[in-house]
């Protein structure tokens, strides 16, 4: 235990926390959200598919089950299952899955984000008026062309606010990665809290960093919403 004054603790703790934010928190968020968004779009497209083929019905059931599981269980529990639980599955005494903490974190955060974001994307696609589909079909477009050229661009604008909120939430949720030994900035704050025996200061400092990061993302969200809605606003004024 080391007793130091407040300013000394801040100057000693802040650089390692910022380093952990740049090396782990931000990359973990960006990679997981990118993969999760891809999963979300694919899952949403499966859910809205009108195909009655047996394979598609099976695929819809699998996607529904995946979304149900990941939306219905705590993220921390999911992290523990992937990191601590899956390596216990063995064949002939050898683990089937051998995942390091970084890989387990990305897999879990991506799947969790994909499950929540898939409902956002599905809702955004469903909000596009049906006559737009019918008009595009009347022009000879295929379903893929309609989605790519007409529906998805509009759905992206509609889903931007909730997806931005999901991204900001993911930034904060990465603090749970400390539970599977990833040295992101919350775990660094825990280390300094134990070292200097000043948990209030250490945890307040990391909370401030999360707050600043979230505030920057909120500003970017507002800008993106205005930028993606510029044509809609112009048409309304006209």
Automatic annotation (TrEMBL):
The chain crosses the membrane at residues 24-46, 58-86, 200-220. It is found in: Cell membrane. Residues 22-218 form the ABC transmembrane type-1 domain. The keyword Cell inner membrane does not apply. The keyword Cell membrane applies. GO terms for cellular component: ATP-binding cassette (ABC) transporter complex. Keywords: Amino-acid transport, Cell membrane, Membrane, Transmembrane, Transmembrane helix, Transport. Pfam families: BPD_transp_1. It is a multi-pass membrane protein. GO terms for molecular function: L-cystine transmembrane transporter activity. InterPro entries: AA_ABC_transptr_permease_3TM, ArtM/GltK/GlnP/TcyL/YhdX-like, MetI-like, MetI-like_sf. Coiled coil: none annotated. Belongs to the binding-protein-dependent transport system permease family. NCBIfam families: HEQRo_perm_3TM (TIGR01726). This is Amino acid ABC transporter, permease. It comes from Lacticaseibacillus brantae DSM 23927.
């Amino acid at each position: 235990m080391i007793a130091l004054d407040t300013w000394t603790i801040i100057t000693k703790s802040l650089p390692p926390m910022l380093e952990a934010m740049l090396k782990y928190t931000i990359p973990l968020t960006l990679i997981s959200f990118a993969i999760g968004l891809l999963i979300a779009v694919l899952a949403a497209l499966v859910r809205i598919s009108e195909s009655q083929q047996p394979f598609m019905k099976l695929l819809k059931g699998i996607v529904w089950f995946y979304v149900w599981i990941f939306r219905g269980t705590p993220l921390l529990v999911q992290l523990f299952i992937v990191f601590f639980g899956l390596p216990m599955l063995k064949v002939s005494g050898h683990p089937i899955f051998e995942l390091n903490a970084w890989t387990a974190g990305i897999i879990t955060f991506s799947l969790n984000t994909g499950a929540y974001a898939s409902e956002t994307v599905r809702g955004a696609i469903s909000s596009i008026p049906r006559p737009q589909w019918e008009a595009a079909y009347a022009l000879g477009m295929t379903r893929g062309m309609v989605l790519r050229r007409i529906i998805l661009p509009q759905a992206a604008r509609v889903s931007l606010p909730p997806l931005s909120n999901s991204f900001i939430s993911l930034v904060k949720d990465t603090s749970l990665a400390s539970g599977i030994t990833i040295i992101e900035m919350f775990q660094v704050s825990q280390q300094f809290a134990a070292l200097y025996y000043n948990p209030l200061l250490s945890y307040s400092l990391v909370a401030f960093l999360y707050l600043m990061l979230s505030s920057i993302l909120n500003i970017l969200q507002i800008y993106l919403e205005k930028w993606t809605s510029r044509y809609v606003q112009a048409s309304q004024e006209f």
